[in-house]
Task: inverse folding
């Protein structure tokens, strides 16, 4: 069985190869380790192998891992759907939120971000797969939403996030990620982040400008939901 350190080395070399193939600068793509359903010990191993940024989808699970790992200087990213009653804990306990798709949630995060912390880094999740996806803002609504979020005092709007409909066809992957990059470029805002690409499509995402790839399975193995 391969260890988490082996998997990190493999994923890092995939990222490097894709970055070079795209003619992009070395280290222009960061690895976000998606640790949902995985025990704190797995994150500890990933930390020992050099990772610092972890993405979690479920608030209670994330908070309990944060307690177990409080001795490590980790950077926490919330990447799951957000209900209004979860915004306060997210504003208090995370460094980044990748999954903001409506203004009400952004307003609450800004109001609830503690004064002693830096502004919360935000990506707007955009839906580029039409009816195939329930999450993410409609591209037609993106300009107004991005403009409004960029004005909120305790948020730092960094860019866009997307989860295109899964496909193994490279041309379809490229088209979806290119659409996200085009949307980002069409906004008249100083954005530096594109959060896109997962275990099966990181090469395509990097070719289309991803700056964070969010990788779970290729680092930690398949997820087992049967216990929950
Ligand atoms: C689970 C998840 C990932 C990781 O997906 P893998 O296919 O396991 O790499 C990335 N982003 C989001 C938003 C996720 O929920």
Result:
């Amino acid at each position: 069985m391969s260890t988490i350190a082996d998997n990190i080395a493999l994923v890092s070399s995939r990222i490097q190869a894709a970055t070079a193939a795209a003619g992009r600068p070395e280290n222009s793509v960061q690895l976000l380790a998606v640790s949902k359903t995985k025990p704190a010990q797995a994150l500890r191993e990933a930390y020992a192998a050099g990772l610092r940024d972890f993405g979690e989808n479920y608030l209670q699970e994330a908070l309990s891992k944060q307690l177990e790992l409080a001795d490590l200087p980790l950077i926490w990213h919330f990447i799951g759907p957000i209900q209004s009653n979860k915004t306060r804990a997210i504003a208090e306990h995370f460094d980044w939120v990748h999954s903001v798709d409506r203004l009400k949630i952004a307003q609450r995060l800004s109001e609830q971000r503690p004064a002693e912390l830096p502004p919360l880094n935000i990506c707007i999740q955009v839906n580029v797969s039409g009816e195939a996806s329930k999450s993410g803002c409609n591209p037609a609504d993106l300009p107004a939403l991005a403009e409004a979020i960029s004005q909120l005092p305790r948020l730092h709007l960094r860019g866009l996030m997307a989860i295109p409909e899964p496909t193994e066809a490279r041309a379809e992957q490229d088209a979806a990620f290119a659409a996200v990059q085009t949307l980002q470029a069409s906004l008249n805002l100083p954005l530096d982040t594109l959060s896109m690409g997962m275990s099966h499509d990181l090469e395509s995402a990097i070719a289309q400008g991803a700056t964070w790839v969010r990788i779970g399975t290729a680092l930690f193995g398949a997820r087992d939901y049967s216990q929950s």
